[in-house]
Amino acid sequence: MTALLEVEDLRVAYGKIEAVKGISFSIEAGQVVTLIGTNGAGKTTTLRTISGLHPPLSGSITFEGRPLAHVPAHDIVALGIAHSPEGRHIFPRMTVEENLLLGAFLRKDRDGIQADIDRAYDLFPILGERRKQAAGLFSGGEQQMLAMGRALMSRPKLLMLDEPSMGLSPIMMQKIMATIVELQSQGTTILLVEQNAQAALSLADTGHVMEVGRIVLSGAGSDLLTDESVRKAYLGED
Ligand code: ATP
Fold first, then answer.
1. Which of 15, 58, 187, 215 is most buried by its number of CB atoms within 10 A?
2. Which domain holds residue 95?
């Protein structure tokens, strides 16, 4: 079986600084895969490169068997990859509904778009209740929901989430993590970047630990959760 996404020996640099130094991993359809690791490990750079926002130095990224080299970012969205970025980047002066519509900018099927807006409101009822309000008034957790809802508006096969739990209360974080599980059960494949290794590994089928641009350890999420080196380095245990 071919993987949904295949990353092979990917290297990415900012000028002379090599942020990603030859990583390889694949994602099977239906899986939740997480990249964990400390600040600066290269996780965000990896997502941005898959999205076509940053060019690779070398290596390959293949989605459903198709190489993504030189494919522009909007075509990558059209192929079925959506990216909810670190820091959310919602549009604060626009309403919830307008922000969601931006996620559907490539689509013309009005009925389908409305159905997906309704689906976002089912997933996150608070967004429906506040659909006409400016998104800038929202709490961090609500903005995170909106960023996820917006990414889902392109009906992605692969949803990439960068640090969705950042700055959230434990209850809001649980809600976001539960939503990831729900989306997986509905058939969405997810690539999750997280600083909160405990939460990410608890729900991921597969995890990869990144350190300074390299994957240093990979395994089932549940195995990495109990791995002694992971526990010491990322789960705050002595
Ligand atoms: P974080 O959780 O802090 O986002 P990360 O694992 O996602 O960490 P990246 O953001 O991918 O890591 O950063 C990897 C390396 O690339 C770091 O050394 C960072 O300083 C560097 N870097 C990231 N963005 C840029 C940029 N726009 N210009 C120059 N260097 C950058």
1. 215
2. 5-234
